[in-house]
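Form P-L/3: holo structure prediction, ligand nicotinamide-adenine-dinucleotide.
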Amino acid sequence: MKTLHIATGKPYDIIIERGIIDQCGTYLRGVSKAKKAMIISDSNVFPIYGGRAEASLKQAGFETSQFVFTAGEESKRLETIAQMYTALIENGFTRSDIIVALGGGVVGDMSGFAAATYLRGIDFVQIPTSLLAQVDSSVGGKTGVDIPQGKNLVGAFWQPNTVLIDPDTLNTLTPHFFADGMGEVVKYGCIKSEKLFETLEKENAPEIIDDIIYQCVEIKRDVVQKDERDHGERALLNFGHTLGHAIEKEHNFKGVSHGEAVAIGMVMITKASEKAGITPAGTADRIAQLCKKYNLPTCDTTPIEKIVKSSFSDKKSSGDSIGLVVLDKIGESKIYPVKKTDMLGFVTGK
Ligand SMILES: NC(=O)c1ccc[n+]([C@@H]2O[C@H](COP(=O)([O-])OP(=O)(O)OC[C@H]3O[C@@H](n4cnc5c(N)ncnc54)[C@H](O)[C@@H]3O)[C@@H](O)[C@H]2O)c1
Ligand SMILES: [Zn+2]
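OUTPUT (holo model):
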């Protein structure tokens, strides 16, 4: 068992342990006096893990209920949140009860948002089951939903009481979604840890995934602690994301998944920063090799002009310039402001 303590406004522990789902009730008891616990999950995850979580919660004395929605990003919308509120009301949830998010990032983001807003805020815990959720979305307290105008445009900062990570759950994840999560894993190595990057190069990540998850969560924890509300340091986590989001958008969020788009974005921006003399030559190739090793793409057919134009409408781009995340070297990153009018030239190196 490995524990990481996160000292945000509301401090909590992140625990990594194989089989922890079967003990989630005990861990929840340690952080909550709630009478009722509602498991919020999706149609893929609940049939596999819901029963085990429920049994453990019951054993620890919680009165349990469940809300299960159709798996997939399409469900990440306000209508689903409204259904969650209904389920919480119907089950008599008060401010002292608790929500248990059991699933990937979609489950975590929506359960967290429902928890942040129901009765002006109730407790929740995260049991992330996808690689992306274990290394990224369950840590840091960002919750939210998509609206027709864009992804994650409505949300709240709301920290969980605890995060219970069970690496065993990754055994049932599809290879596609495993690769998707690896996009973020590679990103952590690029921005903060040459050691992690080299480990990913030398070893086969799935064989040492517990340690990889620990290293990623530790990096995200350190960043989030410095900048809980996303005003500075947290922007480094967007390495590969400015162009990546634009690529996802150009594909209408189908065809190229998030981790894949981030992989392409990391390689593209690093090629550009190499040409600008910021990053040592050969770095983009090294990132591309690593992405390929973990079944991630490294280029896209969308014309570069379209990608750059699309990146301007990113919610994080304000004013005349864009804060691009670039690498001084593998493991060291910084924000590099580029004027929007210079962006195409920067990205193409012309
Ligand atoms: N809050 C944050 O800081 C943050 C950070 C990054 C991403 N996100 C959000 O996370 C979401 C993406 O997360 P995701 O990739 O986990 O998506 P997801 O929740 O849709 O999970 C991916 C797929 O894997 C399935 N799945 C999950 N765990 C499984 C398991 N153990 N066995 C079998 N199937 C399993 C799910 O049912 C789904 O079909 C996006 O909505 C994104 O905006 C949030
Ligand atoms: Zn991401």
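COMMENT: Residues 42, 44-45, 48, 71-73, 76, 103-107, 109, 129-130, 132-133, 136-137, 140, 142, 151-152, 169, 172-173, 177, 180 surround nicotinamide-adenine-dinucleotide (ligand 1) (CB under 6 Å).
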